[in-house]
Amino acid sequence: MKLDIIGDIHGCFHEFHELTVKLGYQWKQDIPVSPAGRKLAFVGDITDRGPQSLKMMNTVYRLVQKDLAYYVPGNHCNKLYRYFLGNKVQVTHGLETTAAEYEALEKKEQQQVRKAFIQLYENAPLYHVLAQGKLVIAHAGISEELIGKQNSRVKTFVLYGDITGEKHPDGSPVRRDWAQNYKGEPYVVYGHTPVREVRKVGKTYNIDTGAVFGGKLSAIRFPELEIVSVPSTMPYVAEKFRELDKAVP
């Protein structure tokens, strides 16, 4: 199994297109296809904040439908899912950009978009265990004792990280640095927390390099463990990047 796992895209379709081309994919009928038979994988948060969330969403949906990609949901995906279900959610923290795109569509197009994303989300596992158990893909990561389990604790962890229940002054949740204590056998590839460079700690890789905040969109090739990135065209927002150690270029 050969994969190219892509970090949080957040509607940055231009960067996604550039990255897939750099990875050697060819675009056919508006989706990227690998001549070498590789597959894409997404760590979630494919929408919100960026300029082309619906186009990004539709592309991932089609790739998964054609068995050309793996997808796990992120916290933004979860919120968008609840929004499409008609649940009461705050249309803030990036969801407002996706909602504005959606509301600008004709009714029939809205129904198609809503149906496709609900199907994508409901058919996605909380996390993927791939390559005969050698690789785990989870949006915000996963601790070794949770791998193989499915419960509310797992759902909270993979969507939001190892949260303590406390809040930072800006309202964001306080999270433990679970990667520092990870002793599991599988590699864990995740995103969720923007870092300036892909962060390797042991067998864990955070590949969210803040494309939507003016950083980079990054991928890790598996099993090669090679990092491939393209620069973002979005404005740089320095305060969105966490200062974490052990980054790799």
Automatic annotation (TrEMBL):
GO terms for cellular component: cytoplasm. It comes from Bacillus benzoevorans. This is Diadenosine tetraphosphatase ApaH/serine/threonine PP2A family protein phosphatase. Residues 1-195 form the Calcineurin-like phosphoesterase domain. GO terms for molecular function: phosphatase activity. InterPro entries: Ap4A_hydrolase, Calcineurin-like_PHP, Metallo-depent_PP-like, MPP_PrpE-like, Ser/Thr-sp_prot-phosphatase. Pfam families: Metallophos (PF00149).
